[in-house]
Amino acid sequence: xxxxxxxxxxxxxxTFEVEKGRLRFFAKATGETRPxxxxxxxxxxxxxxxxxxxxxxxxxxxxxAGTLTTLLDTLGVPIERILHGEQSFTYHAPVCAGDxxxxxxxxxxxxxxxxxxxxxxxxxxQIKDAQGETVVEARSVIVVRNPQENAA
Length: 152
What we know:
The protein has about 150 residues and is an alpha+beta fold.
């Protein structure tokens, strides 16, 4: 069982610059066809400063920085036992290529179901711009499958 003492655990802050190439690659990989996600001129014509971030792009920030690995190591959870359970985003402002963002994440809940057969780690993140304003709030739920002992 994952120790609930880790509720409130603050993970290392990740700071990164949103890059145009990564945005284009992500948009293409996810099947996005709207021109403002692929073409700088179309993005500006649509009212953006530069290429906008596709809706779920920021999920990768923690992955790129190794924050998930740090979390799992701290909690003693082997990566082969996890599943992606849920992801949500609340955007307070557009995020575009060239923006420098900081991601501050913490474990907001740990709970189990089915007699401990599955556990859930809830991670909330505040994503802030270079001025320290929150531009996105994100929540992810990681599902941990626990081996069940065979009854004799």
